[in-house]
Amino acid sequence: MNKVTRGGVFAALIGGLALLTLIVALVGYHAVLAAIERAGVAGFAAYTVYWPLVILVLGGAWFAVAPGLGARGFGILTWARLLREAGSDILPFAQVSGFLLGARVARSEGIAEDVVAASTIADVTAELVAQVLYTLLGVALLASQLRGGPDAAPFVWPIVGALGFLVFAACAFGVVQGRGVSWLGVLAERWWPDSISRADAVRASLDAIYRRPLRVLAALALHSLGWVGSGVGSWIALQFMDAHAPLWAVLAVESLMYAARGVAFILPGGLGVQEGAYVLLAPLFGLQPSDLLAVSLLRRARDLVVGVPTLLIWQAREGRKLLGRPDRPASGA
Protein backbone atom coordinates (compact mmCIF):
# COMPACT_ATOMS: atom_id res chain seq x y z
CA MET A 1 0.00 0.00 0.00
CA ASN A 2 1.65 3.27 -1.14
CA LYS A 3 1.49 6.59 0.70
CA VAL A 4 -1.30 8.00 -1.48
CA THR A 5 -3.47 4.93 -0.90
CA ARG A 6 -2.79 4.95 2.82
CA GLY A 7 -3.63 8.63 2.94
CA GLY A 8 -6.90 8.07 1.11
CA VAL A 9 -7.93 5.24 3.43
CA PHE A 10 -7.01 7.29 6.50
CA ALA A 11 -8.90 10.34 5.21
CA ALA A 12 -12.01 8.24 4.47
CA LEU A 13 -11.84 6.70 7.94
CA ILE A 14 -11.47 10.06 9.68
CA GLY A 15 -14.25 11.57 7.57
CA GLY A 16 -16.58 8.69 8.40
CA LEU A 17 -15.82 8.90 12.11
CA ALA A 18 -16.37 12.67 12.08
CA LEU A 19 -19.73 12.24 10.33
CA LEU A 20 -20.79 9.53 12.78
CA THR A 21 -19.83 11.71 15.76
CA LEU A 22 -21.70 14.70 14.33
CA ILE A 23 -24.86 12.66 13.72
CA VAL A 24 -24.86 11.22 17.25
CA ALA A 25 -24.30 14.71 18.66
CA LEU A 26 -27.21 16.15 16.66
CA VAL A 27 -29.57 13.40 17.76
CA GLY A 28 -28.31 13.54 21.33
CA TYR A 29 -25.74 11.40 23.11
CA HIS A 30 -27.98 10.89 26.12
CA ALA A 31 -30.89 9.58 24.04
CA VAL A 32 -28.65 7.15 22.16
CA LEU A 33 -26.92 5.93 25.32
CA ALA A 34 -30.29 5.49 27.03
CA ALA A 35 -31.46 3.25 24.17
CA ILE A 36 -28.28 1.18 24.42
CA GLU A 37 -28.78 0.85 28.17
CA ARG A 38 -32.34 -0.38 27.62
CA ALA A 39 -31.02 -3.09 25.30
CA GLY A 40 -28.58 -4.13 28.01
CA VAL A 41 -26.15 -7.01 27.97
CA ALA A 42 -28.92 -9.49 27.21
CA GLY A 43 -30.05 -7.54 24.15
CA PHE A 44 -26.53 -7.20 22.80
CA ALA A 45 -25.84 -10.89 23.46
CA ALA A 46 -29.02 -11.95 21.62
CA TYR A 47 -28.20 -9.61 18.73
CA THR A 48 -24.65 -10.98 18.50
CA VAL A 49 -25.57 -14.67 18.82
CA TYR A 50 -28.25 -14.25 16.16
CA TRP A 51 -25.73 -13.03 13.55
CA PRO A 52 -24.00 -16.41 12.94
CA LEU A 53 -27.40 -17.80 11.90
CA VAL A 54 -27.48 -15.26 9.08
CA ILE A 55 -23.90 -16.22 8.16
CA LEU A 56 -25.01 -19.85 7.85
CA VAL A 57 -27.62 -18.77 5.32
CA LEU A 58 -25.06 -16.72 3.38
CA GLY A 59 -22.60 -19.61 3.47
CA GLY A 60 -25.35 -21.81 2.05
CA ALA A 61 -25.89 -19.32 -0.78
CA TRP A 62 -22.20 -19.49 -1.72
CA PHE A 63 -22.24 -23.27 -1.44
CA ALA A 64 -25.24 -23.43 -3.79
CA VAL A 65 -23.17 -22.01 -6.66
CA ALA A 66 -19.98 -23.96 -5.89
CA PRO A 67 -20.19 -27.16 -7.96
CA GLY A 68 -18.74 -30.47 -6.91
CA LEU A 69 -18.28 -29.80 -3.18
CA GLY A 70 -19.43 -32.13 -0.45
CA ALA A 71 -20.51 -31.42 3.11
CA ARG A 72 -17.01 -30.24 4.03
CA GLY A 73 -17.30 -27.59 1.33
CA PHE A 74 -20.31 -26.05 3.09
CA GLY A 75 -18.28 -25.67 6.29
CA ILE A 76 -15.34 -24.15 4.41
CA LEU A 77 -17.46 -21.63 2.54
CA THR A 78 -19.39 -20.66 5.68
CA TRP A 79 -16.09 -20.00 7.46
CA ALA A 80 -14.84 -18.08 4.40
CA ARG A 81 -18.05 -16.05 4.35
CA LEU A 82 -17.60 -15.18 8.03
CA LEU A 83 -14.09 -13.96 7.21
CA ARG A 84 -15.44 -12.05 4.20
CA GLU A 85 -17.79 -10.16 6.51
CA ALA A 86 -15.01 -9.52 9.04
CA GLY A 87 -12.71 -8.20 6.32
CA SER A 88 -15.41 -5.97 4.84
CA ASP A 89 -16.33 -4.46 8.21
CA ILE A 90 -12.92 -4.08 9.81
CA LEU A 91 -10.10 -4.03 7.24
CA PRO A 92 -9.26 -1.16 4.84
CA PHE A 93 -10.66 -1.07 1.27
CA ALA A 94 -14.09 -2.08 2.58
CA GLN A 95 -15.73 -4.88 0.61
CA VAL A 96 -12.72 -5.60 -1.59
CA SER A 97 -10.77 -6.77 1.46
CA GLY A 98 -13.58 -9.13 2.38
CA PHE A 99 -13.88 -10.66 -1.08
CA LEU A 100 -10.14 -11.27 -1.35
CA LEU A 101 -9.91 -12.69 2.16
CA GLY A 102 -12.88 -15.03 1.68
CA ALA A 103 -11.49 -16.33 -1.62
CA ARG A 104 -8.02 -16.82 -0.14
CA VAL A 105 -9.37 -18.83 2.78
CA ALA A 106 -11.50 -21.06 0.55
CA ARG A 107 -8.51 -21.69 -1.69
CA SER A 108 -6.19 -22.44 1.24
CA GLU A 109 -8.68 -25.03 2.51
CA GLY A 110 -8.27 -27.07 -0.66
CA ILE A 111 -11.04 -25.86 -2.97
CA ALA A 112 -9.82 -25.56 -6.56
CA GLU A 113 -8.84 -22.08 -7.69
CA ASP A 114 -11.26 -21.98 -10.62
CA VAL A 115 -14.17 -23.11 -8.42
CA VAL A 116 -13.35 -20.48 -5.75
CA ALA A 117 -13.12 -17.64 -8.28
CA ALA A 118 -16.16 -18.66 -10.34
CA SER A 119 -18.38 -19.36 -7.32
CA THR A 120 -17.37 -16.04 -5.72
CA ILE A 121 -18.39 -14.19 -8.89
CA ALA A 122 -21.72 -16.03 -9.10
CA ASP A 123 -22.37 -15.57 -5.38
CA VAL A 124 -21.70 -11.82 -5.52
CA THR A 125 -24.00 -11.54 -8.54
CA ALA A 126 -26.82 -13.34 -6.70
CA GLU A 127 -26.26 -11.14 -3.65
CA LEU A 128 -26.45 -7.94 -5.72
CA VAL A 129 -29.68 -9.06 -7.40
CA ALA A 130 -31.14 -10.00 -4.01
CA GLN A 131 -30.20 -6.57 -2.66
CA VAL A 132 -31.98 -4.89 -5.58
CA LEU A 133 -35.12 -6.90 -4.70
CA TYR A 134 -34.73 -6.01 -1.03
CA THR A 135 -34.37 -2.33 -1.90
CA LEU A 136 -37.48 -2.51 -4.09
CA LEU A 137 -39.33 -3.85 -1.05
CA GLY A 138 -38.16 -0.85 0.95
CA VAL A 139 -39.17 1.57 -1.83
CA ALA A 140 -42.64 -0.01 -2.03
CA LEU A 141 -43.09 0.24 1.74
CA LEU A 142 -41.88 3.84 1.74
CA ALA A 143 -44.25 4.76 -1.11
CA SER A 144 -47.12 3.16 0.78
CA GLN A 145 -46.18 5.03 3.95
CA LEU A 146 -45.83 8.47 2.35
CA ARG A 147 -48.56 8.00 -0.29
CA GLY A 148 -47.04 10.62 -2.56
CA GLY A 149 -47.43 13.44 -0.03
CA PRO A 150 -45.27 16.57 -0.01
CA ASP A 151 -42.95 15.01 2.57
CA ALA A 152 -41.97 12.38 0.01
CA ALA A 153 -40.23 14.74 -2.42
CA PRO A 154 -36.87 15.17 -0.57
CA PHE A 155 -36.41 11.39 -0.38
CA VAL A 156 -37.52 10.26 -3.83
CA TRP A 157 -34.49 11.15 -5.91
CA PRO A 158 -31.78 9.98 -3.46
CA ILE A 159 -33.55 6.64 -3.08
CA VAL A 160 -34.12 6.31 -6.83
CA GLY A 161 -30.46 7.18 -7.35
CA ALA A 162 -29.27 4.53 -4.90
CA LEU A 163 -31.57 1.95 -6.45
CA GLY A 164 -30.37 2.89 -9.92
CA PHE A 165 -26.77 2.47 -8.80
CA LEU A 166 -27.49 -1.01 -7.45
CA VAL A 167 -29.33 -2.02 -10.63
CA PHE A 168 -26.47 -0.70 -12.77
CA ALA A 169 -23.87 -2.48 -10.63
CA ALA A 170 -25.75 -5.79 -10.79
CA CYS A 171 -26.30 -5.55 -14.56
CA ALA A 172 -22.74 -4.45 -15.29
CA PHE A 173 -21.29 -7.17 -13.10
CA GLY A 174 -23.49 -9.77 -14.77
CA VAL A 175 -22.63 -8.65 -18.30
CA VAL A 176 -18.86 -8.27 -18.01
CA GLN A 177 -17.97 -11.05 -15.57
CA GLY A 178 -17.15 -13.73 -18.17
CA ARG A 179 -15.29 -11.42 -20.51
CA GLY A 180 -13.71 -9.65 -17.57
CA VAL A 181 -12.12 -12.89 -16.39
CA SER A 182 -10.66 -13.46 -19.86
CA TRP A 183 -9.37 -9.87 -20.07
CA LEU A 184 -7.69 -10.18 -16.68
CA GLY A 185 -6.02 -13.37 -17.86
CA VAL A 186 -4.60 -11.59 -20.92
CA LEU A 187 -3.46 -8.57 -18.90
CA ALA A 188 -1.74 -10.75 -16.29
CA GLU A 189 0.07 -12.90 -18.87
CA ARG A 190 3.09 -10.60 -18.68
CA TRP A 191 3.67 -11.49 -15.02
CA TRP A 192 2.14 -14.99 -14.82
CA PRO A 193 2.73 -17.06 -17.97
CA ASP A 194 -0.14 -19.43 -17.16
CA SER A 195 -2.68 -16.71 -16.39
CA ILE A 196 -4.66 -17.21 -19.63
CA SER A 197 -5.16 -20.92 -19.00
CA ARG A 198 -6.15 -20.20 -15.40
CA ALA A 199 -8.63 -17.56 -16.57
CA ASP A 200 -10.04 -20.01 -19.10
CA ALA A 201 -10.56 -22.54 -16.28
CA VAL A 202 -12.42 -19.94 -14.20
CA ARG A 203 -14.62 -18.99 -17.14
CA ALA A 204 -15.38 -22.66 -17.83
CA SER A 205 -16.39 -23.13 -14.18
CA LEU A 206 -18.52 -19.99 -14.35
CA ASP A 207 -20.28 -21.30 -17.46
CA ALA A 208 -20.89 -24.61 -15.67
CA ILE A 209 -22.49 -22.77 -12.74
CA TYR A 210 -24.86 -20.82 -14.97
CA ARG A 211 -25.87 -23.99 -16.79
CA ARG A 212 -27.50 -25.03 -13.50
CA PRO A 213 -30.08 -22.25 -13.05
CA LEU A 214 -31.81 -23.96 -10.13
CA ARG A 215 -28.65 -23.65 -8.04
CA VAL A 216 -28.34 -19.96 -9.00
CA LEU A 217 -31.98 -19.41 -8.03
CA ALA A 218 -31.32 -21.19 -4.74
CA ALA A 219 -28.44 -18.78 -4.07
CA LEU A 220 -30.70 -15.84 -4.93
CA ALA A 221 -33.41 -17.12 -2.57
CA LEU A 222 -30.91 -17.66 0.25
CA HIS A 223 -29.39 -14.21 -0.21
CA SER A 224 -32.87 -12.70 -0.13
CA LEU A 225 -33.47 -14.59 3.12
CA GLY A 226 -30.14 -13.30 4.41
CA TRP A 227 -31.06 -9.67 3.71
CA VAL A 228 -34.39 -10.09 5.48
CA GLY A 229 -32.68 -12.01 8.29
CA SER A 230 -30.28 -9.13 8.86
CA GLY A 231 -33.26 -6.80 9.23
CA VAL A 232 -34.90 -9.19 11.68
CA GLY A 233 -31.75 -8.95 13.78
CA SER A 234 -32.19 -5.18 14.06
CA TRP A 235 -35.84 -5.71 14.96
CA ILE A 236 -34.77 -8.07 17.76
CA ALA A 237 -32.41 -5.43 19.13
CA LEU A 238 -35.20 -2.85 19.06
CA GLN A 239 -37.50 -5.18 21.01
CA PHE A 240 -34.92 -5.33 23.79
CA MET A 241 -34.96 -1.51 23.79
CA ASP A 242 -38.76 -1.60 24.31
CA ALA A 243 -39.12 0.30 21.03
CA HIS A 244 -41.94 -2.02 19.87
CA ALA A 245 -41.17 -1.19 16.25
CA PRO A 246 -43.22 -3.09 13.65
CA LEU A 247 -41.16 -5.57 11.66
CA TRP A 248 -42.25 -4.17 8.28
CA ALA A 249 -41.01 -0.70 9.23
CA VAL A 250 -37.62 -2.03 10.38
CA LEU A 251 -37.22 -4.03 7.17
CA ALA A 252 -38.07 -0.93 5.11
CA VAL A 253 -35.48 1.20 6.91
CA GLU A 254 -32.84 -1.54 6.75
CA SER A 255 -33.32 -2.13 3.02
CA LEU A 256 -32.99 1.57 2.18
CA MET A 257 -30.08 2.03 4.58
CA TYR A 258 -28.16 -0.80 2.90
CA ALA A 259 -28.86 0.80 -0.49
CA ALA A 260 -27.19 3.97 0.81
CA ARG A 261 -24.28 1.92 2.15
CA GLY A 262 -23.94 0.25 -1.23
CA VAL A 263 -23.35 3.62 -2.88
CA ALA A 264 -20.75 4.49 -0.22
CA PHE A 265 -18.95 1.16 -0.61
CA ILE A 266 -15.51 2.80 -0.32
CA LEU A 267 -16.07 3.53 3.38
CA PRO A 268 -15.43 0.55 5.70
CA GLY A 269 -18.86 -0.53 6.95
CA GLY A 270 -20.46 2.59 5.45
CA LEU A 271 -19.07 4.56 8.39
CA GLY A 272 -21.25 7.62 8.95
CA VAL A 273 -23.46 6.89 5.93
CA GLN A 274 -25.21 4.08 7.80
CA GLU A 275 -25.97 6.37 10.72
CA GLY A 276 -27.10 9.23 8.50
CA ALA A 277 -29.50 6.99 6.60
CA TYR A 278 -31.00 5.72 9.88
CA VAL A 279 -31.60 9.26 11.16
CA LEU A 280 -33.24 10.42 7.92
CA LEU A 281 -35.40 7.33 7.45
CA ALA A 282 -36.52 6.63 11.02
CA PRO A 283 -39.16 9.40 11.31
CA LEU A 284 -40.74 8.39 7.99
CA PHE A 285 -41.75 5.07 9.56
CA GLY A 286 -42.64 6.34 13.02
CA LEU A 287 -39.35 5.20 14.57
CA GLN A 288 -37.04 7.08 16.90
CA PRO A 289 -33.68 8.14 15.34
CA SER A 290 -31.98 7.59 18.71
CA ASP A 291 -33.18 3.97 18.80
CA LEU A 292 -31.87 3.25 15.31
CA LEU A 293 -28.60 5.01 16.06
CA ALA A 294 -28.30 2.73 19.08
CA VAL A 295 -28.87 -0.28 16.78
CA SER A 296 -26.18 1.06 14.45
CA LEU A 297 -23.65 1.33 17.29
CA LEU A 298 -24.62 -2.13 18.57
CA ARG A 299 -24.04 -3.46 15.03
CA ARG A 300 -20.57 -1.95 14.95
CA ALA A 301 -19.82 -3.39 18.38
CA ARG A 302 -21.12 -6.78 17.21
CA ASP A 303 -18.91 -6.60 14.11
CA LEU A 304 -15.88 -6.06 16.33
CA VAL A 305 -16.85 -8.75 18.85
CA VAL A 306 -17.35 -11.30 16.07
CA GLY A 307 -14.92 -10.00 13.46
CA VAL A 308 -11.76 -9.43 15.50
CA PRO A 309 -11.62 -12.96 17.01
CA THR A 310 -12.45 -14.38 13.57
CA LEU A 311 -9.50 -12.55 12.01
CA LEU A 312 -7.23 -13.57 14.89
CA ILE A 313 -8.21 -17.24 14.50
CA TRP A 314 -7.50 -16.96 10.77
CA GLN A 315 -4.08 -15.40 11.49
CA ALA A 316 -3.28 -18.17 13.96
CA ARG A 317 -4.19 -20.84 11.39
CA GLU A 318 -2.12 -19.10 8.74
CA GLY A 319 0.80 -18.99 11.17
CA ARG A 320 0.52 -22.71 11.83
CA LYS A 321 0.68 -23.41 8.12
CA LEU A 322 3.73 -21.19 7.66
CA LEU A 323 5.44 -23.05 10.50
CA GLY A 324 4.73 -26.36 8.79
CA ARG A 325 2.04 -27.44 11.24
CA PRO A 326 -1.17 -27.40 9.17
CA ASP A 327 -4.51 -27.86 10.87
CA ARG A 328 -5.89 -31.37 10.89
CA PRO A 329 -7.93 -31.81 7.71
CA ALA A 330 -11.69 -31.89 8.19
CA SER A 331 -13.55 -35.05 7.39
CA GLY A 332 -15.98 -35.20 4.49
CA ALA A 333 -15.95 -35.19 0.75
The helix content is over 70%
Alpha carbon gap, first and last residue: 39 Å
Mean pLDDT: 83
Number of separate strands: 0
What shape does the CA trace take?
globular
Q: Any low-confidence stretches, pLDDT <50, length ≥5?
A: 328-333
What is the ordering of alpha helices and beta strands? HHHHHHHHHHH
Query: What is the count of distinct domains?
Result: 1
SS field, number of helical segments: 11
Determine the structural class based on helices, strands and strand pairing: mainly alpha
The proportion of strand residues reads under 5%
Radius of gyration: 21 Å
**In this structure, how is the largest beta sheet organized?**
none
Describe the structure.
- With 333 residues, the chain is mainly α.
- It has one domain (12-25, 39-322).
- The chain contains eleven helices and no strands.
- It has helices at 3-27, 29-64, 71-90, 94-108, 113-146, 153-188, 195-210, 213-240, 247-263, 273-281, 289-322.
- It is globular, with a radius of gyration of 21 Å.
